[in-house]
Task: structure prediction
Amino acid sequence: MRAEFIHPCPGGVSINTNSVPSASNLNTIERYLKSIDSTGNDEILAPQLPQSKSYLKITSILYIQPNGNKLTGDNIATTMKQLEIFESVNLAAKPRVIKASPKSDMAIIWFDIWDSQNGSKAKLLINHSFNFGRYITTIRTTNMNPGVSQCHNYWK
Result:
């Protein structure tokens, strides 16, 4: 296997190869990335092969949080990392927070996950409710959101 090119992208690195990497090849890539002085070992995630995406949204969540701050994608990503239902989920990009309407105090969180072609990870999340602070939110399916970063391995 040979790397055709390595391209930095938001939240990670994309590596195109001349063939499908084996598990051994992926381990070699991971060791190489961790050997680069300017990267911290804790910042390097295990390389993975491309997958399909599933497009989801979280509804029924306050746009302005009880502390007075606006909800951000970082708040959502941090909360997701702590919840068991997102344990085996890899975000394809940072979650996006959109106010439901100009006069509403509610937000919709759009997030994309790396999934199998049959959407098995998304099927486990769809219509699942969880607590965000003292509010109960629900995960719904949605259509593809064009213009979203395609970089793999935003977090695990």
